[in-house]
Amino acid sequence: MNLLKISIANLKEKKLNSFLSALLLTLGIGMISLLLLLNKQLDEQFRRNIKGIDLVVGAKGSPLQLILSSIYQIDAPTGNVPLSEVNSLRKNPFVKTVIPLSMGDSYQGFRIVGTTPKYTEHFQAKIAQGHLYNASMEVTIGSKVARNTGLKIGDTFSSSHGLDSEGDVHGNRKYVVKGVFEPNGSVVDQLILTRLSSIWDIHEHAEENHEVEKHTLGPEHEDEDKQVTSALVQFRNPMGLMTIPRQINENTSMQAALPSIEINRLFSLLGVGIETLRALALVIIMIAGASVFISLYNSLKERKYEMALMLSMGATRTKLFLMLLLEGLMLAIIGFVAGIVLSRIGLWLFSRAAEQDFHYSIRQFGILPEEIYLFFAALFIGLLAAALPSLGIYKLNISRTLAEE
Amino acid sequence: MITGTNLRFAYSAQKKFNFPDIKCKNGETLLILGQSGKGKTTLLHLLALLLKPDSGEIMIAGTSANNLSSSQLAQVRAKNIGIIYQRPHFVSSLSVLDNILLSNYLGDKKPDKAKATALAEQLGFADHLSKKPSRLSQGEQQRVSIARALMNNPNIILADEPTSNLDDNNCQRVIELLKTQSASIGASLVVVTHDQRLKDVFSNQVFL
């Protein structure tokens, strides 16, 4: 027999009231915690892949779309640009590296990206098995691609046109898997990487097959007619940022997009929604506090006699006050734990959807530091909501209460 | 042993009570009889230290209760006084057994489960220990509250109209139990009632 046992018995006695209070807290805390988790993980995912990329060039269109398609591989590309224009960027003294990208095909929903070895260097992707592609039609695949498609070294496959799995199949030329990357949490995990020339080769053959008018060009002009989708650019120093984007936008057929600016724009757009949800969650938590308050207030009115009885049996008022506080505290703890569990379930569902649509996975289910503050906030609300009505215990007239009933 | 001398209490200028002196030695019984409105419950609450008298003195087990703080009063109540109310009331969320053990807990004593079951055995509700008190009949509830009052071996047992809601059979039984149980632990038993059926059962009587 102790205070805890009596408090638990009291909560059980009023199952529905306790359930409602705990449920409201669970919802409020679950929402806030889910928002924190999503915010942090999206932020991390976005920042990790953006690191070291100062500029993206590609066909004119939406800069955000260019960033999303070229860095994160989630949106459709804006179009193609001539390789020669991309390569002319290399002559600029402020430019350190230019990584051209060519995309448009996929295999089972995973994008095939033609690029240079600089790309793997940039994302610090290491080979787990086999070796990096070094000839046309050879590919090295990301860890998630290997896991989901079951492709192994030596396997061959045909790519399909377009970025979803329903495109036309390029049946003639088959890619061969030469290696698999180690998982490193970057965009490489979900990509099939190959040489730029693979993409050109495959589309030339496709054009032949479709009997579209064929251009035959001498190998010396090849470079001029080749097209890529976009290119990732790194500057040697920040001065590049001042001049190059303007030059590109004004003097070439390409556009320059700054990842940091576009991502901040994206987050500020998302931020409005997140702020609204957060405010809603806070309101729910406040209602939960009011619910604890009301249910304790009502039950205290009903239990006035019980309180007087316990006082007449030798309980001190402080002891009974603590007992009532404990009820509020337990509701807060139950609500917090259930809320944290709920947010993890929500995150898991979200991650499943995100993985299906974008191949991004979110797999951090640990407790965030912010959630520890959230815990104390929940305790505070539980205590406050319980303390306000329970102060009445100090004013209870034992004799009158006992005599009245 | 409990004594009350020159006790006065006023709720208001019109509603004043002057009580006759009360004395009940260890192992003895005392019946306080009075019609409604004569201050029976007030007197019992004074004796139980739930109310402070305007004047006069209450001695419990040889010490005066006049100058005790409210937490000291709570201690004295828990240790020395067992109270049985007119309508038995319980902590409704706890089982019968836990309600009995509550006396021990609030009196800062170890829960004595063996004693609780022994008392339940003697008072005839051993089958109901795990039930909620509200599921017991009035007579059974009254017997449970007797057990609860006895748990800390109090020096004084105060009963407020313990039989007024009971039929003749239950009345007889409850009073017998009260007398034998208080005698067995050598406590003073003070019963406050208007129930004329008890007149012949007690030799020491005070009329209000």
UniProtKB/TrEMBL annotation, chain A:
Membrane topology (UniProt):
Multi-pass membrane protein
Entry annotated with the keyword Hydrolase: no
Which key words tag this protein in UniProt?
Cell membrane, Membrane, Transmembrane, Transmembrane helix
Compartmental location:
Cell membrane
User: Which is a Gene Ontology cellular component entry for this protein?
Assistant: plasma membrane
Q: Of which family is this protein a member?
A: Belongs to the ABC-4 integral membrane protein family.
Q: What is this protein called?
A: FtsX-like permease family protein
Species name: Dyadobacter sediminis
Q: What is the lineage of its organism?
A: Bacteria, Pseudomonadati, Bacteroidota, Cytophagia, Cytophagales
TrEMBL record, chain B:
ABC transporter domain location is 2-208
Q: Please verify whether the record's keywords include ATP-binding.
A: yes
Which GO CC annotations does the UniProt entry carry? plasma membrane
| Keyword list, A-Z | ATP-binding, Nucleotide-binding
One GO molecular function term of this record is: transmembrane transporter activity
Using the record for this protein, list the coiled-coil segments as residue ranges, or answer none.
Answer: none
Q: Which PROSITE patterns match?
A: ABC_TRANSPORTER_1, ABC_TRANSPORTER_2
- What's the name of the protein? ATP-binding cassette domain-containing protein
Biological source species: Dyadobacter sediminis
